[in-house]
User: Fold this.
Amino acid sequence: LDPEAGHLQIAVATTTNSFVSRVLAKFKKEYPKMTFFLEVTNRKSLLEKLNNNETDLVIMGEPPVDMPLITKPFMENPLIVIAHPDHPLLKNKNNSIKALNNETLITREQGSGTRITIERITGMKFNSDIEINSNEAIIEAVQAGLGIGFVSKHTVKLELQNGIIKQLNTDKFPITRHWYVVHHAKSKLSPIAQRFKDFIVENSNLQ
Assistant:
């Protein structure tokens, strides 16, 4: 078997999609004979795939500690608070968590890694004003002035640079966590899967 060929199945969290796509494009140039299937999905589905050993590699936020997994952190993933450029809270040098309780909060769905992390670290309990299962849709909702959102900073780099949304300075934010490349402890990685695992760790600067 050609170690530079083979098929790779990858399942990734929605927050990692743009980064993983850039890494895959670079990897494909180095290994043009390989093929891959990329599935972008939510945390619940990723955990099911890991538990059932249904994919070669998973790229996700904080992995569970109660599953037999091999995990490797490879990149910081800061969670930030975002708001429309005209939002009055932007006038404050810093905002308390309590101040956010009076706002319409736009969050990921219950069970998402982003939401679990925010609730654990800040003690916030979302009343689910607006729940959205896509980061892109959260960004669009904030742009439309629907409320305040919580996203990975990597997903809003262009919007922040262009000034169409703003980062809201808030107590306990940004929350710095990591992205991980993960697979089941019992799975034996194919040569191409092992090469991609090494490659994504080495290319974590492709932000």
